Every structure is written in structure tokens, then in C-alpha cells.
Target: tRNA pseudouridine synthase D
Amino acid sequence: MSELHYLHGVPTATGVIKANPEDFVVIEDLGYPYDGEGEQLLVRIRKIGCNTRFVAEAIAKFLGVPVRDLSYAGMKDRHAVTEQTLCFRVPGNGMPNLAGFQLEGVEILQVIRHKRKLRTGALAGNAFRLVVRQISDRREVDARLQQIQQRGVPNYFGEQRFGRGGNNLTQAKQWAQETFRPRDRNMKGLLLSATRSHLFNQVTSARLQRDGALDVVQVGDAVQLAGRGSWFVAQAEELPDVQQRIDNHQLRITAPLPGRGDAGPQGDALLFEQQSLAGAEELITLLERERVDAARRAMLVVPKDLRWEWWDDVTLEMQFWLPAGSFATSVVRELLQQEGNDADIAE
Model:
């Protein structure tokens, strides 16, 4: 991540995040109501000190549900206080009793039935509450918070997407060179995800280096409705209208999540992306060989409802909401130089 360009310049202030797990709170927002009936059992939990998969498998064992019949929208960090919904296939109309379930660091908040299985990525976003301690320069951090509130931050995938020490990306490169083979489907998914995330970050950083911004549209850019997956190509005659909608945060300019299918942009915009990915041909070939479909992702994310409060001159509490797939550490990265554990997970 250190080689990626900053939107607001390299921060000079320092601070400590996650001095305590309670300093990093994540609340998952599915974005839709529960049905109250159906064969899927949704279990809302609050956890601390344990990872999502571990908790889900423990509840599945308690319910007598096969591991293949559990799911969740995304992973949540072990070293934080997190709230999320887990899903288990439990046919019938009865409501299983989870009162006897006990696991250190886990609290059952709600149990309700739902008609559809909860799938990976099927959430609106996450609400975050962060406490940053030992801040070296309150004035600079205040100024940057205002900049982030107005202009957002690069929508980079966080370091945790690439594994400890970037190992997921290293193994993906070895896989592309056929000197390594993933052992199972889950590992394949992790490595392919790391590959696309890396390529997206590279294009976004190159765009920021070239333009100094991520919200100035050019002819041929693939532009996305904010919060949606669909996109269209900006044409010359509609550029003023598209730019106005970008300024109003209704549209976002995208970068590629490479794979099979339409790349997205046209003309000079397409050429720029191709040049930005020069040297990554092996990774792109791997994605195509593994039948990963191409997609687009907004290069800029503006934290929603960003607000902050200083407890004293060196301690800051901040709250904001990010759409699914965006990382709180990408917000903090633009704010200050981080000290402490910064491995959050947001999907």
C-alpha cells in the first residue's frame, strides 16, 4: 500500500488505532428487512476476539447444521467489536433455541427466519466507530477530516485483502506462472480476489498520479451510478452533465476489476488503463483462464455521515458509513500515519 498515491497528499500526523478492540467498532448493514419466515435462520451476533468463520462454524455445530449450509455477507475483524448476521439453512417452521449457546466473546442479539440464503457481498455497507489515540497534530487531522468529508478518499482495497505480508498476491503470481497450485476452492477465491484488488489499486493510483483527482471525468470513462454495479461510457456530448452528477456524488468514475468480458472504457480512457496494467499480463491471463468475469469499481468513496469528536487534544472519535466492499483503513490512511494494528475487514 505504501506505493499507492494519496488524494490529499501524504499525511504527516501520526496516531494509534486499535489500542483496544473497543476502539474499532463495525456494524454490518444488510440494507433490507428480514422476512420473518422461510427455511433460512438468520442469527445476528456481536463478537470480539474471534473471527467470523470460527463463530459461524460453532453455531452451526450447536444447531446440527452442516458447514456447507452456513453463510454470511462478509468477514469481520477479529481484533474489533463487530456486529453482523450469520445464516444457516434450518428447514421447518420452528424457531431453534440458541439460549444455551455459549462462546467467549460472542453475544446472540437476534434470531429470525428468512426466505433467502445470505450470500457473500449481499449487504449495503458497514457503519464504523473508530477511536484514534496519541494523535501528534490535531490541527492537521482536523483539516484532513474536512477534506475527506468533502472529497472522499481513494477506494483502495486494504492490505488485509492481500494476506499477511502480501502472501495472497505472491501465491497468485506463482499460480499464474504455474509454479504453485491452490489446494482448494476457498484458496482459489482468495487468490483471485487479491489479484483483482491489486490490479484495481494500480489503475486507481495511476489515475491519481496523472490527474491529481479521481472525480474529473474524461471522454470514454466508464462511469457508475453511486452504490450500484451498472455503468455506462461517458460520451463527449454528455460530459458537462456527467461531470455535474459526479460533483453531486450521484456518479463515480470506475477502474477495472479485470476478467473475462467487456473492459468498460473506450478510446484514450481504455488505452490509459491498458498502459497502467502493463506488466500484469500473466495475472490478467490467470483471471481469464479461471473464468472470472470482468467488473467495475468506483475509484473514489466518500464516507457517509462522517462526524468526529475530540475527547482531548490527542484522542479522536470518528463515525462514518461505507458501502459494501470499502475499507475503513483506506479512510484512516488518508487521515494520518497509522500506528498499531490496522487489519480491518469490510466486505
